[in-house]
Amino acid sequence: MKTVIMFTARASILQGWQDSLKNEYELFYCESEEECLDKLKINPQSTLLLHHNSMKYGIEKFLKLLRADFPHTNILLLSDIPTLEEGITILKMGVNGYGNSYLNSSHLTHAMDVISDGNVWLTPQFLSTLIQETHNPSKEDKKGSPRLSLLSKREMEIAKYVAQGLKNTEIAELTQITKRTVKAHITSIFEKLQITDRLSLVLMLR
Fold it and tell me: What is the C-alpha to C-alpha distance for residues 95 and 88, in angstroms, rounded to an integer?
């Protein structure tokens, strides 16, 4: 069973997270950012679930401390009032997911499933807003779009599934190939398109 290390100073949020995830994940609770780092030393493969508004030093300082010893830790950061500007900043810092502190159970479980596999997760509403705000057809966009022609028919099929937010396991089932083959295709897609994450792929396909 995968492990999740949770940090929030708010009891109501903690209870909601526990109720949503307790059947799918082994959960550990921290009372401070420092304790999160200590627990990661014991469980280095854990995913972090953090409440942005509870952080004493702020996410930027915490990430600097975290990345020094755990450069590949997956993180879901939840905020009481998520905003587009904050979300973009957070994602650029290397956080895997961003959303509302009070995500419903199904959204939180799906987010953790996606993020614990090392992928990027955003709510459909946030992703839609991000695409609308950042997509501006320009000469640069038109110059970059032909790169999609470098993809094979199978790679383009998988790229579209990724853009829909499907997990690797779901893509494997739909395409009747192994999860390992899906990962290989995605790696090839990223290399051909000169991108490094799923969000960039979504923006390129829209």
Answer: 10
